[in-house]
Amino acid sequence: MLIAVLSGFIVAALAPWVFRLAGGRTGWVLGLLPAALTVYFATWVPQIAAGDPEVIVYPWIPGLDINMSFLVDGLSLLFALLISLIGTFIVIYAGGYLAGHRDLPRFYVVILAFMASMLGLVLADNLIAMFVFWELTSITSYLLIGFSHEEEKSRKCALQGLLVTVAGGLALLAGLILLATVAGSYEFSEILAGESLGEHSAYGGILLLILLGTFTKSAQVPFHFWLPNAMAAPTPVSAYLHSATMVKAGVYLMARLHPTLGDTNAWLITLGLIGAITMFTGTVMAVRSTEIKRVLAYSTVMALGTLTMLLGIGTEGAIIAMIAFLLAHSLYKGALFLVAGALDHETGTKDITKMGGLARAMPWTMVFASIAALSLAGIPPLFGFVAKELMFEAALGAAWLAPVLTVLAVASAMLVVAIAGIVAIRPFHGPRKATPKEPHEASWAMLLGPIVLGSLGLAFGLVPVLADSLFVQAGVAAVYGEEVDFYLSLWHGINLPLLLSLVSLAGGIFIYLNWDGVRERLARTSVIDRFGMERGYDKAMRGLERLADWQTRVLQNGYMRNYLYTILIATVVLVGYTLFGRYGLAPPLTAVDGLPHELLIAALLVVAAVFVASTHSRLGAVASLGIVGFSVALIYVLFSAPDLGITQVLIETLTVILLVLVLFRLPDFVDFSSTRDRLRDLVVGGLVGLTFFFLVLFAIDVQYFDPISQYFVEESVPGGKGRNIVNVILVDFRALDTLGEIYVLALAAIGVYAMVKLRAEDRH
Description:
Layout: H1 2-22, H2 26-30, H3 32-42, H4 45-49, E1 54-56, E2 59-61, E3 66-67, E4 70-72, H5 74-97, H6 104-123, H7 127-145, H8 152-183, H9 188-193, H10 203-217, H11 226-229, H12 235-244, H13 249-256, H14 258-261, H15 265-288, H16 292-313, H17 316-347, H18 363-377, H19 383-396, H20 402-424, H21 444-462, H22 464-480, H23 496-513, H24 515-523, H25 533-554, H26 560-583, H27 596-614, H28 618-638, H29 642-663, H30 675-701, H31 709-720, H32 725-733, H33 735-763
């Protein structure tokens, strides 16, 4: 399993080399990896369908109880299969869509790394490991959204997506740590096996932090604005990240934690209402748009809201609908995004209003676009119809939220039917419209994905028992927390969900036929955008820039003294507050029991240091500085460190000689600072000195472990084969530290040599 998850990173590193060898066939060659992973994960289906999940553990950081562990159950396996299957078509598709692009090798590197990150995210059993993969998806998606990095729009949209999701990720990390602390484990499998945390006092904080992370990742209102903007990415990225994989990561995590967090009214109200509002908002914004990728992006927001709403409802029927809708959406939305890319690639425009009559020029694209769109609209016998019926049934059974959720669900379904017509009928039927490029059928590399994904949606609709027995049953058991007895069917008789489907179909057809007028009316709602979250994001970014400008002027203005003041005062405040806040104003002072000569050395050191800071005589300052150094050397000697004392003496002697040789070439002392500045420096220096004086006193008073010195004494001869304990410490016990110091000295010597050599050459 570990090799399967990490193989994407390995192949990603080799992708440029493969590209040099395979050229235009690179997509087909690299597509073998996700295809092989699909086969590998498919071998798990019989075991998981039989209700036998498995945990695989690889020790990672045992001292911190962090493992690279993986949980394979119905939920994680469904996601892993979708990621690897759709990833196969995306890699192949990219070879045709981006053929001839100079940065295509870089695209392969990042898309494969992203695939590996998503696999790690959905399969990880350890919270920390999952979060590492979670952040890797944010980083790799940033690189993919900003693939066209020379365009300002791409850079801006990539940064927006990164900042929103990473900000949510910080909240998520805090929530996961709090969850692990309360549950007593960092493993999902152990947390889910324990009791629900709904009654725990920390439940509110855990829920808030985790939902902030999942809502930002899965583009829930009010964080939905970043997802449509991410359509600045190439179509393969949009099809993979923003329809089938990354944006569902938040939904995945909410589903994973549903047995632990999902039995409270807070969960029901928050997820139910936010999900329903997101669902409706996405459909309205989709109908308002004309760019085909943007229409599909907003319909993805709708789908994410639907999944969140169903998780919030939390009943057996809602969880069944959620898993079925997840599967249906991944299939038809992946196909539709790939169709949108084919239309853009072959016609030269993304604007639906500028397309028409393409059926004869692109017959295969038209057929499978229609199949996927029918599933999107929830028309039988597509699997999307089965999922929509289940969604209506779940909304009707949502306790006291049923009326609100049902109304929003029906209204959204009407708009989705119109969206399906917009993306599948408008471009291919009606009078032929002139396009920037002469349209023709896309290559097989670009058609393979829509054909397979669309066909799967049709097959699962005609024979729902396939999806039921292979994926949905196990997925529902993983999310609901126990086995649920149900079966999927294309026909359940005449009932209220069917009537609601007919109402939504009729309403959707009406909206589609009047789309131009509806779009113009909805365009008037754009005034609301001035007060939306995206405008708040823009203002926050401008405020951040102003803050950065201010702090640069105040703190990073090029004056070393200001840097030192900032560092020293911050240290005094933080360390002082911690010390006296914890220990009070009574440091552990004890009577001084030093010998007379020791006290004399200490007094001499203090007097010499004060004289260095106050004298105007350079010779006196150097002499006093030497006294400070030799006093420190005497302290080393008195406390059984003669080798350090000798080193200190040598350094001080050399320093004093060098300074004296240079002194007579320097100008006289000049007072560049005022008396007020010097008093300020005296106060700051005194505070720093007192702070570290008390810090040393407190540190001496606290002894958590036995001193290590006795270990050095005992192991010097048998372990280090030396009787000079200090040498053994430096060479054996602290070998890497000493090696680092040697490297530093070597680099400094090289630098000095280079400067001396340069000056010598300048003279010639």
